[in-house]
Structure formats: C-alpha cells, structure tokens
C-alpha cells in the first residue's frame, strides 16, 4: 500500500512547476480563505489567527520520469493538513487531480477496448454500407464524399474518438438511422429538387415531407421509430427494396465479370487472326546441345581458310573459334 497520494496536472504539462497559494474555497458550505501552514491545526485562515505557523506555497514539480513524465505533487499520508488543503483548493479537479498509475492504465485499456469495438462495428462493408455508416455517424454531408474518404474518416474517428462511433451504433434508433442512410446510398429514395420531400427514386412519388433545414435521414429515422402501422409497412417496403438492390448489384458484378472475360477472349482471337506471317515466330527444332554452334563454326572456318578443319580439331569448338578470329 502506498504511503503517499499523487496529484498530477491534467493538461499533460511536461516541464516546469505549478503552485498552489492562498485561495477562497467552500468549507462546509461557506466561502472561506484557506492556506497551507505547516504545524497549524487547520487550513482555514480564520482558525489560525494569532498562530505562529507561517503560510507556505505548495509546489508541484516535474518528476522527470523517462516513460511517464509529468508535473505532480507527492503528499505523504502522514501529513493530513497538506492533503486536505490540496483537495479543498478550488483548482482541484480543474487543473490537477489524484493520479493512480493502475487506474490510469485501466483507463487506457478501456480506451483501446473501445477502439476495437468501434472498428468491429464499422467493419469492411461494401461501398453502400460504408457510405451509409458515414451518413449515420457524420451526417448527410457525407452523401457526396467518396468511399475512400468515408472509410478513412470512420476508421480515424474510431481510433481517436471511439465513443462517438459506439454512441451512434449502440443508440436505440441506430437501425432506423442506418436503414435511412442506406436507402439514400442505394438510390432507393432521394430528395426532390427543393429539398422539401423524400421521393421514391423510380416513380418520384412522395414518401414524406421535410421541413426547411431538416435532414431527410433524421426525418426518416424519427418516422420509422414511431412504430405505427404505416411506419412498419413502410419499413418492410424499404428493407425489401434495399435487398433487391443488393441482389441486383451482385448479379451485375457477375455479368460484368463474364462480359470482361468474353471480351478478353475475343480480343485474343482477333489479335491471332490479324498477325502478319513475319510476326509469327516459328520454334526451331531442338538439336543436341552445342551441335548447332559447332556446325556454324566449322562452316565459318572453311569459308575463311578454304579448307576443312583439321581432323584432330574438328570437334574442338574453342580452337575453331580462336582460329577464325586470328
């Protein structure tokens, strides 16, 4: 068990000092001046009238720890007067707080756990899911952002402020908000030109009206959460249409891949049919290793010297080459 209580500045100050002086604080519900007087019986100035104890400033100092530098104050538990003064000073909780190493470590563990949870929520969804998540988290302004920007900003938010992501995904209305975002992203619905109504994209029939300055996503989220017969019917229709869009996209992807393969095959056939004879390389018949070079060297020797290669050197390729270059 530690024999001291550690107080540390909250602003992550890494050098210098910090000083606590006489201040006005609330003591038992009454505003009174307090100060630290070693040897006194109270931190309240009115209680120390006539006391020989002198006021002393309390100084936080830089600890210079390599792995955990900070400006802090170690107060021995054997000095309850100083402990009371530091705790009741009006700057307590504002400029500084009690620091516990294990508690600080647990706080960081909790933060990293939240980061992992937030990243799992975001996941690696398809383009429509990523954009819908961005709309649900950041608002309708992300409807015009590219998918890489949406994906990057979501993950960046998860790393820096995971609770923002968690609050959105764990909210009671998230399913409705996500569905509303997905409807816009998949093109099932859209706003009219004056941004006063939500329409079906295929028929342009009105679904809901939007007040001036109101978000279509907010309006749909609120409507779906109402739980009325109309909202439940509309939700079923929304979900059905989103599923049809998803299936159509998968079918389109397969069709595109098949068409690309067919085009590549036709292109290869066309290139083969239009090649000139001189472009077609005919593979030479294989011969025993070195025989072709030896025959060519013998012919070159005969051409130069008008005579056959001497019998003793007839199969000595290096000798023949040497004579040719002499």
Q: So what's the oligomer here? A: single chain
Widest sheet: strand ordering: 2-5-6-1-7
Shape designation: flat
Give a short account of the largest sheet: 5 strands, antiparallel
Percent of residues in beta strands: 5-15%
Number of helices: 10
Helix content estimate: 40-55%
Would you kindly provide a written description of the structure presented here, covering whatever features stand out?
By secondary structure, the chain is α+β, with helices and mostly antiparallel strands. It folds into 3 domains: 4-99, no CATH class; 110-225, no CATH class; 291-324, no CATH class. 48% of the residues lie in helices and 14% in strands. It has helices at residues 80-88, 101-122, 127-138, 147-160, 162-169, 174-185, 216-225, 229-273, 291-305, 317-324; strands at 4-9, 17-20, 23-27, 30-34, 58-62, 71-76, 96-98, 189-191, 197-200, 206-209. The protein has a 5-stranded antiparallel β-sheet, with helices on one face. The chain has a 3-stranded antiparallel β-sheet with strand order 8-9-10. A two-stranded antiparallel sheet has the order 3-4. A hairpin with a 5-residue loop joins strand 9 and strand 10. The longest helix is centred in the last third of the chain and has 45 residues, at 229-273. The chain is flat and about 135 Å long. It starts with a strand and ends with a helix.
